[in-house]
Request: fold
Amino acid sequence: MKAQESRIAVQVVEYPTEHPQEAWDLQLDHLDMYVEEVMEELQAIRWAEGSHAPNHCSIQAKSSRHNWGGSSTFSEIVMQVSTGTVGGVGATAIGAAVKIVYERLKARSQGESWDTIPSADEAVRIARSRLHLHYGAESDKLRVTSSEVDAGTQRYDLEFAHEDGRQFGATVGAIDGIPSCTHVWMRGAAPS
Reply:
């Protein structure tokens, strides 16, 4: 199925049962690729620059069709890629590979969920939403500790403190020219 709306996420993990060290999200409209083609494109991330062996990964996809009034289709594809394997290249090289793959995916779409820089309040809401999605952090318990905007690159850099002591970061507009790409990370141990 070629979905009208697609959410693609890459989570960098040490082990599949842990929260990601960082995660990259991309939302696209009318991606001119079947879900299986997107999954195949994501495989390139396993071979990030400098890797002599592919990193371990898992890719899960969900598709849905909504026919209640207006019709729409949605796909969600989540890749977990490990940095904990022998020959692993680390989060920096994986981030560079994500950027290349996301740029190729964007080129095959008719646009993004939004195509201009969001307002500061909207950027905070988006970041909180992604932190909740990837880390289970309750949005109302995340306090903004730092916020910077670069209108030229359509980018917000945000930092949050959670009441349980965890520190989070988020970049809304993480890849130049792709304002709907978000990058989130956590510092500090997850609560027991």
Observations:
- The mean pLDDT is 87.
- Helices lie at 35-42, 90-107, 120-135.
